[in-house]
Design a protein that fits this description.
Elements (H helix, E strand, L loop, with lengths): L1 E5 L6 E5 L6 H14 L3 H6 L3 H7 L2 H11 L2 H4 L2 E10 L2 E9 L5 E11 L2 E13 L8
Parallel strand pairs: 2-3
Antiparallel strand pairs: 1-2, 3-4, 4-5, 5-6
């Protein structure tokens, strides 16, 4: 398992990659999480698929949805890519996020290949573990 660090707005975020660091699906997810942590919401919104962008309309609505449904995406201290399954043009990536108090959440990201770029097409909460873990809404 390799590990690399991406600088966050407040502190580094540790990302454990189970596959090569060049994995484009993992890179898109990592980049969106980093943009959220850096409060660059316009950039974070751009990693969403056109279908998500049409439904949510703008980055203000997007960040409101993230804060309400997936707040750990903005505060995660560690990101681990657990499992990927691909059936072009779709891919599913299981990601485990850990917070400051040791709580962890698992999510399934649905990705879609549009042209030569992967985009996030949906996120489904799977499970939570740890101290004071709260279920994402």
């Amino acid at each position: 398992m390799s590990m690399f660090v991406k600088a966050g707005a407040l502190c580094p975020i540790f990302i454990h990659a189970t596959q090569a660091q060049d994995n484009p699906v993992e890179n898109v997810i990592s980049n969106q999480i980093q943009a959220l942590r850096s409060e660059n919401f316009d950039l974070a919104f751009q990693f969403s698929s056109p279908a998500i962008q049409r439904r949510i309309l703008n980055s203000s609505n997007f960040v409101r949805m993230i804060r309400e449904a997936f707040p750990i995406l903005m505060t995660a201290k560690q990101v681990e890519f657990v499992k990927e399954r691909m059936r072009l043009p779709l891919a599913w990536q299981v990601v485990r996020l850990s917070g400051e108090q040791g709580e962890s959440y698992s999510f399934a990201y649905e990705m879609i290949l549009i042209g030569s770029e992967w985009r996030i097409n949906g996120v489904l909460p799977l499970e939570q573990h740890g101290q004071d873990a709260q279920t994402p809404k």
